[in-house]
Amino acid sequence: MPQLISRKQALDEISKQAGAGTCLVCGLVKNEQVRLLCQSAEVSVILSGYPRFWGQVMICLNRHAERYSEITESEWQEISRLSLQYMSRRSAAHSRCCKPVRTCM
Ligand SMILES: [Zn+2]
């Protein structure tokens, strides 16, 4: 049975791991080597340590950014490429493991 914790508890734990004054996302990219699924020059794919659903991944820039307008075209393309890759894998794994029943209209 999974342990349920509040969002605040999860954020407090992530903040503690990141270190005082460090951006939470930059802290994850720097510290989550165990859950790191893939890392390109610009983007990291990390399996969430505090998932809202099993298999939740986070796709993060390797550098600090606070606004979408700060993300370069190259970074957007890499985010898109890795999002599609990992969503496809998760979808395939879900179908294999859970054999979901499809409904019709
Ligand atoms: Zn950051």
Q: What's the short version?
A:
This protein has helices at 7-18, 24-31, 73-98; strands at 36-39, 43-47, 57-61. The chain is α+β, with helices and mostly antiparallel strands and 105 residues long. The structure holds zinc ion.
Overview of the molecule:
The protein has 105 residues and is of the alpha+beta class. It has a single domain, classed as HIT family, subunit A, CATH 3.30.428. The chain is 44% helix and 13% strand. It has 3 helices and 3 strands, in the order ααβββα. The chain has helices at residues 7-18, 24-31, 73-98; strands at 36-39, 43-47, 57-61. A 3-stranded antiparallel beta sheet has the order 1-2-3, sandwiched between helices. A hairpin with a 3-residue loop joins strand 1 and strand 2. Helix 1 packs across helix 2. The longest helix is centred in the C-terminal third of the chain and has 26 residues, at 73-98. The model has no long low-confidence stretch (mean pLDDT 88). The protein binds zinc ion. Zinc ion is lined by residues 23, 25-26, 64.
